[in-house]
Known about the structure:
Layout: H1 5-22, H2 29-40, H3 46-60, H4 76-89, H5 95-107
Helix pairs in contact: 1-3, 2-3, 2-5, 3-4
Protein name: YkvA family protein
Subcellular location: Endomembrane system
Pfam family, one: DUF1232
Amino acid sequence: MAFKGEDAARLARDFWPKLKRVARHVPFAEDAVAAYYCAMDQETPHHVRATLIGALVYFVLPIDLTPDFLPVIGFLDDANVLAAALATVRLHMTDRHREAARRTLAEEGLADPA
Length: 114
């Protein structure tokens, strides 16, 4: 699965604004941010980056299988696509990616208070 340069560009442009709008409403925000860091990591193998970029671009698309504005179920398709991608590439997502995700969410005030 190859990704096009415009997919990575769209992800870089649209990921953070969408995440900031919805982070408190989706239980998979930390996974999404960790996936973003893994996808942008030049040390991550190309096929892993392509899988994650595809899943994250699906997350940022304004129109998808289940519209995001629907309460409760709006992000189920996004969560399922991301979960499938993460299950496929889980060995490549490092503690460094997950720690960067936790730190970013906390710094942006988007972390779920424990």
